[in-house]
Amino acid sequence: MIKHLQIVALLLTALYSTETITHTVSLEYRLTEKFKLFALKEIISIEIGSKNIVIKPAGFGTSILEEKLEYNNQDLSDNNLLYTLLIKNIIPATEDEWIDSFFLLDSLAVKARFLFSEKINEKRVYRLDIKQLNKEDVDSRVNIVILDNDVITVWTDESKKITKISLMYKNVSYVINIKNEK
Question: What was the pLDDT predicted at 3?
Fold first, then answer.
């Protein structure tokens, strides 16, 4: 009986304790892809837990984001676009076509399209287009930035594992550096 209780306790511990994944965001200002004027590294961190996302500014990041943003009880399943990009770190098998089964934070329904653009130094470069499916009001700052961006660029290796995501918002490029530790 004690062995059964220990096994149940072990399984529950494994089920409810998940590793937090952290990515850093840098700010870059470029004239072209090859000519970068300046970059401020690690100004924001994105921490993703089992159902929570915390976005925290650091250093210069506090002038962009005055306080940390917390999103609790989020559905971080396979259809969540942020889960696909920041946890699975892989481009879906369907390229160059709209996928209308994604959602963002707070289960906001969107469709997304990963358009292969070019190969640069053995990296595959994609443009990510995202459109809101229904015209409900958007309250989440993260969702607003994702939907109102100028362009999102995703870099992958040959096996389509994401290495970097660049989001152009209000003429400033925010680069999410993906740590592929798995």
Answer: 54
Q: Assess contact for 104 and 118: CB atoms under 8 A.
A: no
Q: Which residues pair with 54 in a beta bridge?
A: 47, 70
Does residue 10 fall inside a structural domain? no
- Residue 115 is part of which domain span? 19-177
* φ, ψ (nearest 5 deg) of residue 141: -60, -35
- Asked whether residue 42 is domain-assigned, the answer is yes
The rounded distance, in Å, linking the Cα atoms of 28 and 177 is 12
Domain count, the chain: 1
Residue 1 lies in a domain: no
pLDDT at 83 > cutoff 70: yes
Q: Is residue 8 part of a domain?
A: no
Q: What are the residues whose beta carbons fall under 8 Å from the beta carbon of 34, sequence distance 6 or more?
A: none
**pLDDT attached to residue 28:** 85
The reported pLDDT for the residue numbered 70 is 94
Q: Give the Cα separation of 36 and 172 in Å (integer).
A: 12
Query: How many other C-beta atoms are found inside a 10 Å radius of the C-beta of residue 108?
Result: 20
